[in-house]
Every structure is written in C-alpha cells, then in structure tokens.
Design goal:
Layout (H helix, E strand, L loop, with lengths): L2 H5 L24 H4 L7 E4 L4 E3 H6 L3 E7 L7 H16 L8 E6 L7 H10 L6 E5 L2 H10 L7 H5 L7 E6 L4 E6 L4 H6 L7
Parallel strand pairs: 3-4, 4-5
Antiparallel strand pairs: 1-2, 1-5, 3-6, 6-7
C-alpha cells in the first residue's frame, strides 16, 4: 500500500458494528492503518520521562497530529514549526490533552535525550497534550519511513537537514488521515481538526 492508499483509508465505509454492543477501546480491533504497518507500535520515551508504545498508547482511538523535527535544526525551520504548533495549541485551548494530542518525534534520538527534549519543550512553554518523543534510531526510522517522509534519492534522504516540513494528522477511530504543512498559518492547521471529530 502506498501513501495515496494510506491517505484514502478514511474514505472507505466505516466497519460494521454489532447492534446493541459498544466495543471498549481495548476491545476494538487495530485500525486498518495500524494493521497495514503505517502506525508501528514502537517504544518511545517522552520529555516528561514517561514511556509509551506509539500506536497503543498515543494514537489508538485518538485525534492526533505528529511531526518529525531536530532540536539542533541548522536551517531554523524546526523552531519556526514548533512555534507555529505552539500557537495552534493555544487556538485549540481546552481540547488539547483531552481530545486532541500533539507528538513531535526527534530525528536524532542519539542526541535528543529526554533532558534535551524537556528543555526544548520548556523553551517553547509547551502545555499538556503535547509530547516530545525520542527512542531507538531504528524505530524512529521505521516510523518516518512508514509515513512516507522519505526522499527517493538515498544521499538526500541521509541528510537530516532535508527533513520534511509536514505533519500527519488524523483520527484513528474514524480512520481519517491527512497531512499539513507546519509552515501553514496556525489557524489553517487548527482548522484541520474540525472534520476529525465525531
């Protein structure tokens, strides 16, 4: 399945449910995107010190936005994107951490330790509902590739300064997914969450 198929998953008819029976989140099957490998259940460490599984703990049954970034971004794009997402966090207000969650995942996990991520989050006055995450390099690479954030040229792909300025957003339960530029206006990014609620 390619990226176009992944983004189109939300266009299919919803799965049938058994009349009179509501499945709890833990009983629901994994979403089609997770089953297809687009949302690998890799272990991650948050800037808060908490440990999570990407799909089971952070994505499953949630409305989310996640992006990849570098703390030491030489081009300056990551700090601008983080500031933009911080403005989006303000626009979403009380929804953050309740029904919308943000995750920023380091592309340099060997450098961006929990403490480095904690200081970075504090520098941007990040509020609850947004986690900065690190993990094993191979796991982060698996996640990045599963999202299609890859350059076809292997040499360009190795250069982390070429990372994509996009974020994936979606609602796992509704199986609706899309992508948005983190260079968009904060209001534009915040508006993407209007069609993700049920």
């Amino acid at each position: 399945m390619d990226r176009r198929s992944f983004l189109g998953l939300g266009l299919a008819a919803p799965a049938l449910s058994v009349p009179g029976r509501s499945l709890a989140a833990t009983e629901r099957p994994r979403s089609r995107a997770a089953q297809a490998g687009y949302l690998p259940n890799i272990p991650l460490l948050a800037h808060t010190g908490e440990r999570f599984r990407f799909y089971d703990d952070l994505i499953r049954e949630r409305t989310v936005l996640f992006n990849f970034f570098l703390v030491s971004c030489s081009e300056g794009r990551c700090p601008l994107a983080t500031a933009k997402l911080r403005a989006v966090q303000d626009l979403l207000g009380e929804r953050m951490g309740r029904d919308v969650f943000f995750y920023s995942i380091s592309l340099q996990p060997e450098v961006d330790t929990r403490q480095v991520l904690k200081e970075y989050a504090e520098a941007f006055d990040v509020k609850p509902g947004w986690l900065f995450l690190t993990g094993k390099k191979a796991d982060i690479e698996l996640l990045r590739r599963s999202q299609g954030f890859v350059d076809n040229d292997p040499e360009r792909d190795k250069d982390l300064s070429n990372h994509v300025g996009m974020a994936r957003y979606g609602n796992d339960r509704l199986e609706r997914w899309g992508a948005v530029s983190v260079n968009s206006e904060a209001e534009n990014i915040a508006s993407t969450f209007k069609w993700l609620t049920s």
